[in-house]
Each structure stands twice: as C-alpha cells, then as structure tokens.
Fold:
Amino acid sequence: MSGTSVDGLDVAYCRFGEKNSYTIVASKTYKYPDSLKNRLKNNMTLSTPDLLELDAELGYYFGYTVNKFLKEYRLPKPQAIASHGHTVYHNPGKSYTLQIGKGSHIAAVTGLTVVCDFRSTDVALGGQGAPLVPVGDQFLFAQYDYCLNLGGIANISVKQNNKRIAWDIGPCNLPVNVLMYTAGKEFDRNGETGKKGRLIPALLHALNRLPYYKKRAPKSLGREWIEKEIMPHLRAHKNVSNVLRTYYEHIAIQISAAIKTKGATVLVTGGGAHNKFLMQLIHQKTNAAIIAPQPEIIDFKEALIFAYLGYLRLHNKVNSLSSVTGAKKDSVGGAIYS
Structure:
C-alpha cells in the first residue's frame, strides 16, 4: 500500500479464515529512497516517458521490497500479492484513473501472482473507482457504525438502509506534509506545530466554502484537486503554525459533518489517528465514540483490506460496491499477473 502522503510502502502479510476472520502475521513500513520519494511527490510534472520509467521502477521496488520483507520475517511465500499501487491521476468524471507500480514487474521479481489496478473496472462502469476499502469495512469491521480513515485524504464508510456507502470527505495529511516539508520536517508530530498556531478566520471560511463539500456521495478526490483547490489557499499565508491550526479546524469540521448519528461508534485509522491535536478536535466536534484501535490496525488497515480485495479477486467475488462508487453494478476488479 502506497498512499498519497508518500510516507512509505506499507507491507502486510495477511491470512483470512472462516466467518471473515483475519490475522496480520507481520507488517512493516519501508521508507522510500530519497530519489524515488522526490519523483513520487512530483509525479504530475513528469513527461510521459519519465512517468512510464517511474511506473516500471516502482514495480521493481515493490517486488524487491516484498522479497526483503519475506526474508526479514522468515515467512513462507504467500498465495499472492495485492498491490494498490501509487496514485498519480484520478479523474473518474473523465473515465480515467492511474496507479503506478507495474504489477508485471512485481510478479517478475517475486515469482508470485500479483493482483493490481483495482480501480479501473469500476471507473469503466461509471463509478468513482474509490473508495474501495469499504468492502473490507463491511465484512471485516462490521461491528463499527462508521469507519474513518485519516490518510493523505480522509474517507469514511457507513451502512445506510442496508447498503454500504462511502466517500472521500476531503484532504487530510497530504497538505500537512507538504507544508511541513517546506519547514524542513516530514510531518507534524502529534499536531504540535498546528496546536501552537492561531485560527485564521478568512482562511477557514474559504476552505469550508469549497464546492466539493456540498456535493453528495458518491464522490472521490485525487491529488490534482488538492493542488488546485486547497494548496493555493494555504500558501497564501506565511505562518505555518497558523495555517495548520486553521487547516486542522477545517478537517475536524468536515469530518464532524460526515458523522451524523449521535452516539455512533467510529473506528479511526490511518496516519492522522496518531495526530493527537487533530483527534482532540474531532472528539470536540462530534457526538460520537471515537475509537482508535491497536497501532497495527491504525497503520496497516488499508494494506490488510487491499490484501482482502486481492483475495476476493482471486476467488472471483465482488470487491467493488456500486452503492459506494456509483458504478452501474458491483464488480470484480483487478488485473492479475502470474
């Protein structure tokens, strides 16, 4: 699993059993080499040949990292690898989505079956191609009313009228990391930089008025939307602490608007769940029980669920819900290389 925040590559060795049981046998996040990380961060500026080269290189990197992981933890070879890839472009309105990290190259390096490109079939059927994690929420985490993921983008899923629905709420960690990078740091540990700042009312008002928030689900976001709609507002102000304080307030407001059931149980995962200040704001603004699970689930829930999506694909079972994405029908998504 490689997210929009470019924190690193999450690798999880997972087993699935009867009655939707699961075990994360081992897990680790591998930080990207600086040269690869910089190109991933700036992938939208690359020429077509350079992007194709990065696609192949990333596939090799994924494969070699999996081999290293299996050796490091002395694990037997798995049935398959499920790879989300790294999202470069996502515009379902124009019927395209692109996740790089070629599955053929992962298979060539590891000698294992690889399932990848999970989003394209759903997009071809008129869907958003995202979020896909709600399939796992429905079967692996059904005990919670809401499942909230605070990654580069914040997304949420909930069962409504006997159907699972989900959507991207808005940006989350990605703009924070971009701002902290300009200040010479990789991320805002515990939200400490933002906590020191003061609210900028005009900025908060401008962010909350963005048209995306008025759109009804299904809806999803890509990095290009964040670069166009969010970052210009944030970059218009010089004090990073004040900008982050305001941005955290904005995130918490949008999340609280998405959680409509009083007293609901909300499972919170993703890197943002480690941000104590952001979590404090979410607690303050919701009438729900905000539950942060054990660190392994916080950090590797998405990797676990994409392993599950790969498992479903190999068994020719539905792994993309039209009730979530708005596609014409449920589908079995994912390309297979072996």
Observations:
- The longest strand covers residues 22-30.
